[in-house]
Design goal:
The protein is globular. Helix 1 runs antiparallel to helix 5, helix 3 packs across helix 7 and helix 7 packs across helix 9. 27% of the residues lie in helices and 24% in strands. The protein has helices spanning 3-27, 31-34, 59-75, 159-167, 172-200, 206-225, 278-293, 329-332, 335-343, 401-407; strands at residues 39-44, 50-53, 86-89, 101-110, 113-123, 149-153, 156-157, 230-238, 245-254, 257-261, 307-310, 359-365, 368-374, 410-417, 433-439, 447-451, 473-478, 482-485, 491-494, 500-505.
Length: 513
């Protein structure tokens, strides 16, 4: 196989995953998937190792889907799978870290043999449970848990499972519709994969996968070997539940291998949903390292073999059941900041300063339940200012005001960049943004706004003397009552059209002086 042949085949595999991605995007029912693009699609080899993913896939999903596949295959061994089977789970400890993220995986058969797998993870609009995470103490309170199960058996839908899901969520037609969009994308991916194998004369994806993955591994090892050996330490602070939490990290480079060690991480929180499962932590750590070491390297199982991620069991970065995990992004989105800070001394030209945590806003009530995502200011880097109002380390999109207003009885009175919110420095951090929401109608139907503001308690310094960006914040304005801070947990009930919620997403930190 020549380099040209391999490149053509690789590009074709990526194109297949992109067609899967487009299928979900065009057929999803919810704003969180169809507008915010909070999902990812991937091809995997017969052993469940990642082979290729859509360039627009959510990074954390690309890295956590293989773990979900491993759990699914452990429950349903290869010899028990049949053509037309579709597997599903949202187990936070083997999937993407909280119950909203549902993995749907389809085995692909060629001439009776397992040729590979097509899968996706998508953030469903609702999974039942509490909408106020402040007091939640266990995952049992956060919604419906779906252990590794068959969603389809030999082409026949599991009506019992779908009815169980529908009975436990607030908008069943939306949630089931989104799951079916994932199933449809897998059908497209399976069909295109078999066409690809026919055209290339491949009986098995194994040899091609081994070649692609081994080359990616070699390239990543070369990138790691270019970093001076040593132990590099960093940290990041986040708001926590009752008080700020410190997330320490040590990145150890030894030859062509690298270890990320979160020893000293705080113990898991007894309530509040901010705990991260190890699967979620490992995915974010690996993504941050790829951004620094090899952003252009083909991303697959091989690229991550040289990387080991350690986190203490029972810590906030490797929580144990039945810890609450619903808003684990409030901690997990600081992992990249800690790793970038650790590697700043070794790779100052490749790291960037802290990016303010994005904000997810959910409006729900009788007959509606939809999301708006808002990006914060990105951190600056050597040679460039941070982008404004862009989501990172997630690759989700800001949701259009028009779409949010069309699907909820909420008016967005104002949405603007926050002037001077980026941290000062030789290169300034990006600006955050502000949104003002109010209830549209004076009726008897309350509107609940859930907004988990992160970055309101802590300042995260920039790199090499750069200043922190502006903090996040939020408050409620009621006629005759003035301004009141958001309640802990961020859930507000609006009952009149003159009541407003004001939300501010923080700015990115600066780089240099």
């Amino acid at each position: 196989m020549t380099d040209v042949d391999l490149r053509v085949m690789w590009d074709r595999l990526v194109h297949i995953t992109e067609e899967c991605w487009l299928t979900i995007w065009r057929t999803a029912f919810s704003t969180i998937i169809g507008e915010a693009q909070d999902f990812g699609c991937e091809l995997l080899d017969p052993d469940g190792g990642s082979l290729a993913h859509s360039p627009r896939s959510m990074p954390v999903f690309n890295l956590s889907l293989p773990r979900a596949v491993a759990a699914l295959v452990a429950r349903f061994p290869r010899e028990s799978l049949r053509e037309g089977d579709v597997l599903v789970t949202n187990d936070p400890w083997v999937c993407a870290g909280h119950l909203f993220d549902i993995a749907v995986v389809t085995p692909v058969f060629r001439r009776g043999r397992l040729a590979g797998l097509v899968g996706s993870i998508a953030h469903c609009s609702d999974i039942g449970g509490s909408k106020d995470p402040a007091g939640v103490r266990e995952v049992y309170e956060e919604g419906l848990q779906i252990p590794p199960m068959r969603l389809y058996r030999a082409g026949e839908r599991s009506r019992d499972l779908l009815e169980l899901i529908a009975a436990n969520v607030r908008r069943p037609e939306t949630v089931i519709g989104d799951i079916q969009a994932q199933v449809a994308a897998n059908v497209v991916g399976a069909r295109r994969l078999l066409e690809f194998m026919d055209e290339c004369g491949l009986e098995d994806l194994g040899p091609l996968a081994a070649e692609i993955q081994s080359r990616s591994e070699a390239a990543m090892r070369a990138a790691i070997a270019a970093v001076p050996d040593g132990a590099y330490r960093g940290e990041a602070w986040c708001d926590g539940v009752d008080w700020p939490l410190r997330l320490p990290v040590e990145v150890r480079v030894a030859g062509d291998a690298l270890t990320v060690d979160f020893a000293g991480a705080p113990p898991q929180e007894p309530r509040g949903g901010v705990n991260c499962t190890y699967s979620y932590t490992a995915a974010h750590a690996a993504y941050a390292l790829k951004c620094v070491l090899g952003p252009d390297l083909p991303a697959n199982h091989g690229a991550y073999r040289p990387i080991e991620v350690l986190a203490p069991a029972g810590s906030i970065l490797a929580c144990e059941r039945p810890a609450s995990v619903g808003v684990r992004t409030r901690v997990g989105w600081y992992i990249a900041t800690a790793i970038f800070g650790a590697l700043a001394a070794a790779l100052p030209e490749r790291v960037k300063a802290h990016t303010a945590s994005p904000l997810s806003v959910t409006a729900y009530g009788e007959g509606f339940n939809d999301h708006m995502l808002l990006g914060g200011g990105n951190g600056a880097w050597r040679g460039g200012e941070g982008q404004s109002a862009l989501l990172f380390p997630t690759s989700a999109a800001n949701v259009a005001v028009e779409m949010f207003e069309a699907r909820t009885p909420v008016l967005v009175e104002r949405k603007r960049l926050l002037p001077a919110s980026g941290g000062a420095g030789r290169w300034r951090g990006g600006q955050g943004q502000e949104v003002v929401l109010r209830k549209l109608h004076d009726d008897d139907a309350p509107v609940l706004i859930a907004a988990h503001v992160e970055g309101a308690r802590v300042d995260v310094p920039g790199l090499f003397g750069g200043a922190p960006g502006a903090r996040a914040g939020g408050w409620v304005e009621r006629a005759g009552a003035g301004r009141a801070p958001l309640p802990q947990g961020g859930t507000v009930v609006l009952r009149a059209s003159d009541e407003r919620v004001v939300l501010q997403v923080g700015g990115g930190s600066g780089y240099g002086t």
